[in-house]
Structure formats: C-alpha cells, structure tokens
TrEMBL record:
Top-level lineage group: Bacteria
SUPFAM superfamilies: Bet v1-like
The protein's name: Activator of Hsp90 ATPase homologue 1/2-like C-terminal domain-containing protein
InterPro entries, A to Z: ASHA1/2-like_C, START-like_dom_sf
Family: Belongs to the AHA1 family.
Pfam families according to UniProt: AHSA1
Organism: Sulfitobacter mediterraneus
Gene3D superfamilies: 3.30.530.20
Domain Activator of Hsp90 ATPase homologue 1/2-like C-terminal, first and last residues per copy: 13-141
Residue stretches spanning the membrane: none
C-alpha cells in the first residue's frame, strides 16, 4: 500500500475553506479536471454518508468514483473513502482520503492525505490527478478574494 500527502495554502479563512471543500454547490466548481463535465453527482462532504461523482472528459471518457464520508469535524477535517468504477460500473479497490484544514498567518492550509493506494504507480497517478482539482480550487478561491 502507498500513501500521498499534498499541501496547499489559500488566502481565505479556515471556515471558508471548509465550506468550499464540504458543500456540493462549491465542490462541483472545483472537483475534476479542466474540460470535464459532471454528468451526475452527490458530493456533500458536510455530513457522513455516501458520495459519488460521474464525470466525462473532453474526449468523452467516463470517470466515476464513489465512497463514504466517514468523518466530518466542522472547519478542521473531512474523511472519506474513495473507489474508482470500471466500465461495467464495478467499484475497484478502496482507499482513504482526509482533508485537514488549519488556520495560518496568511489564511488556511489544506493537507490532502490519500492513503492505502494499491501500489506506488497508482499513488503517482493520484498525486498527479489531485493537481487538477487543487488548481481549480486555487483559481476559484483566488477569484473570490479579488472580488
């Protein structure tokens, strides 16, 4: 099993970062990659329970993933399981993600811990894969702070 850890700092309050990470109306704005569209989703990370996202890339490829929100500590932590679905909609191996949010002198820090990935190769793919959504999140929050 392999793990990855990513950190980003944002010029918003801890409370605002938690809100953007946890509520569906905000998550759909940054989840996925540029050019992808949401086909269907249930992305409420403000409470425990099931979640899923079904997306299409610009090339028409389907990307579906799902899991369970397992822990929510308002303004601090969101924990959830993660599993990709194959072409037959069968869910693959499960891994675990934790968003940890902390106040900093310049705003708030997000730490993404993605654990129990099945191999180093899969971990490397996920590390690159998180780059898209985190860049979208950064753009979304920087637009907010300019307004």
């Amino acid at each position: 099993m392999s793990d990855i850890r990513l950190e980003r700092e944002f010029p918003v309050t801890q409370k605002r970062l938690f809100e953007v990470l946890s509520t569906q109306s905000h998550i759909v704005q940054w989840w996925g990659h540029d050019g992808w569209i949401m086909i269907e989703e249930q992305l409420d990370f403000s409470r425990t329970g099931p979640w899923f996202a079904d997306m299409r890339s610009e090339e028409g490829n389907r990307f579906k993933l799902s899991g369970q929100v397992t822990r929510v500590s308002p303004h601090d932590i969101i924990g959830f399981t993660w599993g990709w679905h194959d072409e037959e909609d069968q869910r693959g191996p499960e891994s675990h993600v934790t968003f940890t949010i902390a106040e900093t002198a310049k705003g708030a820090r997000l730490v993404v811990d993605h654990r129990e990935l099945v191999s180093d190769d899969i971990a490397a793919q996920h590390e690159r894969g998180w780059g898209g959504p985190l860049s979208r999140l950064e753009r979304l929050l920087s637009i907010e702070t300019k307004n």
